[in-house]
């Protein structure tokens, strides 16, 4: 963790090692970010308390990251990834 703007910052990489799309949900925002196979995103959080900055849950084809603070998702170069990035079109199948 490093200090930025006077507060702690934590980063966690999430990589899709599977062969299908993987949904990454960032809570409490409910934002969804879809990783293609072999793609890696970075979850960044700041402004968290003394506890753990992340809580991670895994469900079939979905990873849910609960933040204890504010946060966002980036690529490996630090470029922010918007909500709905890579979301499959309505009716498009994903394999769990």
What can you see in these coordinates?
It is a single chain. The model has no long low-confidence stretch (mean pLDDT 89). It contains no helices and 8 strands. It is globular, with a radius of gyration of 14 Å. The chain is mainly beta. Helix content is 0%, strand content 49%. It has strands spanning 2-4, 7-15, 22-27, 31-35, 40-46, 54-59, 62-67, 70-74. The strands form 2 sheets. Strands 1-2-5-8 form a 4-stranded antiparallel beta sheet, with no helix packed on it. Strands 4-3-7-6 form a 4-stranded mixed beta sheet, with no helix packed on it.
Provide keyphrases for this structure.
96 residues, mainly beta, four-stranded antiparallel β-sheet, four-stranded mixed β-sheet, 8 strands
Strand content: over 45%
> What is the subunit organization of this protein?
single chain
How far do the termini sit from each other? 33 Å
What is the string of SSEs from the N terminus onward? EEEEEEEE
Secondary structure tally, helices = 0
Helix percentage range: under 10%
Taken from the alpha-carbon principal axes, the silhouette is globular
Largest sheet descriptor: 4 strands, antiparallel
Strand order across the biggest sheet?
1-2-5-8
